[in-house]
Amino acid sequence: MYILQKLMNRLIVLNKFGIFSFTFFIVIFSSVVMHLIEPKTFPKWFDALWYVMTTVTTVGYGDYYPVSTAGRIYAIFIFLIGIGIAGLAIGKLVEALGAHRKRKEEGRLTFKGRNHFVIIGWSEKAKYAVSEIIETHPNLEVVLIDNLTITPITHQNVHYIQGDPSIEETLIQANLKEAKSVLVFSDDSIHDSALADGKTLLIVTSVERLTPHIHSTVEIKKEEHIKNFRHAKVDEFVLSHETVSRMAVRSAFSKGITEIYTQLLSHKEGENLFEVRKRAEWVTYKDAFDSLLQQGATLIADGNDLSINKKLNDSIPDDARLYIICSKDVYESII
């Protein structure tokens, strides 16, 4: 009994690989031994393996069992050693799964996916952004970076990375080099707009230094800071305070205009804004405008150029980024 106790104590301190390796050895070795001891009871090697597996997992169907003295003696060995080792292996497996889940929730796992969307900074705005991405692109993987001790959102396509986003190691952990786009939200806990934009600029500088090719969108508090972000080669800017204020003022003078903004900004209601590729038969903007209008869509812009109606007879460049307003059903029929 002392020997068995010493053996189990040694097994407990083994790592997971050692436990699984030893369990595999015991199962295979016992299957071979039982097949050799009782070839009539276990005519096939798989029959012996079936018996050993049902025994060590305490299932015990009773369809196979040893009848000779030698077979029963070895079966006692399986009872004493095999069941304990199998239980230990199962316990280690459950422990490993629990540890993996804990590391995932704490954001300590490295993301290995590609063409994902990275969001830096958790807030209510980030929450709505994640919800919008999941709603419009259900297959897109999202990686969230923040300093929270545990993930603020649980979804199969959302992966959390805990760390300082201005540090290169954190961005590498999020696999930023193979990401499709990055969205940086301003830190709402910083009430000074200059300090908040300064922190955002530090983060986006690290992002652009590591992955200069990535498409970056940044939330900025003060409009006069845009020139600093342009110097950092940021692609898109969102002015949080100014945008809300201007929308409020316009709604005061033009009743119902906020409904238009809401429809264009959200994919959950009304007409939406979509991007379409140029077709071979669309030579001029008028060709595209008329064709899309017949299908129920309105062409409004090429990139950030909203003056489509002033150049309908101009040729459409091959790299044009055409934006239309239509319902989701119409968009899906167009693409």
Automatic annotation (TrEMBL):
Question: How does this protein lie in the membrane?
Answer: Multi-pass membrane protein
What is one GO biological process annotated to this record? Answer: potassium ion transport
Task: Give the InterPro entries listed for this entry.
Answer: K_chnl_dom, NAD(P)-bd_dom_sf, RCK_N, Trk_Ktr_HKT_K-transport
The listed locations are: Cell membrane
Superkingdom classification of source: Bacteria
Membrane-crossing segments per the record:
17-37, 73-94
Listed under GO cellular component are:
plasma membrane
Pfam families for this protein: Ion_trans_2 (PF07885), TrkA_N (PF02254)
Q: Per UniProt, which keywords does this protein have?
A: Membrane, Transmembrane, Transmembrane helix
The chain positions of domain RCK N-terminal read 114-239
PANTHER family the record matches: POTASSIUM CHANNEL PROTEIN 2-RELATED-RELATED, POTASSIUM CHANNEL PROTEIN YUGO-RELATED
State the name under which the record lists this protein: Ion transporter
Please name the source species: Fictibacillus phosphorivorans
